[in-house]
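Sync notes, pocket subgroup
Present: LS, DG
LS reminded everyone that the earlier model was apo-only. Rerun requested with G3I included. Inputs:
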Amino acid sequence: HSNTVAKTLGGKLYYGSATDNPELNDTTYVAMLSDNTFFGQITPGNSMKWDATEPEQGVFTFAAGDVIADLAKSNGQVLRGHNCVWYNQLASWVTAANWTAAQATSILQTHVSTVVSHYAGQVYAWDVVNEPWNDDGTLREFIFPEILGISYITTALVAARTADPAAKLYINDYNIDSAGAKSTSMQNLVASLQAAGTPIDGIGIESHLIVGEVPSQAALITNYEAFTTLGIEIAITELDIRMTLPETPALLAQQKADYETVVSACKAVARCVGVTTWDYTDKYSWIPGTFPGQGAALPWDDNLVIKPAYDGLIAGFTN
Ligand code: G3I
């Protein structure tokens, strides 16, 4: 594949992939992922989440996350940290008790500062808060907002900044590709954090999309710029474009066009720093397990062979 695609952050865009510890036994997979002339960035799919890093209160386990951080380091790849606070994959002890506000604040600060400190100096950007919104733009309820309200976001961001002043601090969500209630809520949040002096550097646009239902390039660019005009950067953090199986030539051709649309929209926006696909091969995609009957969402197939979507990805980066 082309050496012209991958860019470190010195270039316009990086291309990266999520990866996960169980897949690292697959030597062909790892060899391909470790080509840093192509993959400029990696994200751990699960191993830095709360249930993995603080499974019991005050007991921190970094072995699995360290494997991904070390892989990035030995490959010379940018590392994105994912994630500090999310409603899903919380450790069960977090949700099991009726915490006071002071206790909830302390739990949040301890978790964020311990995890971010552990990886300080190794992480380009952290998804400090993951998926804070419902699709209608209202605040998603889970234990921290239930106890602390929206201020849990500020608490997490401040703790992360103190723990690693060099890491870019992101909030990450899906269904914020084009204009709508959820995008508006995220943009209003960024503005209110900035007005309060709370650190916020970027918004992650996950981009779990559906073949044939990707917004137009113009709609993507308009919305991406609604974020960047606030003075922050953006990244496409979890791109995949799924279809209802079986694959057909028509679906694969549409998927190719859809990949090009998204990547070239990022390329067109000055402060869109990179595109990460949520893994690179269908072999390790989360889609079939979550959406039965759907899949084939990534640029490489189950046999690690490129699909038309790969050509769309390349076209987006190079055209
Ligand atoms: O660790 C257990 C293992 O012990 C057990 O044997 C196995 C059996 O099911 O499950 C393992 O846990 C799985 C975990 O991944 C680690 O492999 C969970 O069942 C599974 O639900 C979990 O899925 C992850 C999902 O987040 C959870 O919501 C996916 O791998 C991961 O790719 C996905 O990533 C999220 C992003 O973090 C946020 N945005 C959406 C994206 C897709 O859901």
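DG: The chain has twelve helices and ten strands.
LS: The mean pLDDT is 96.
Action: DG to write up.
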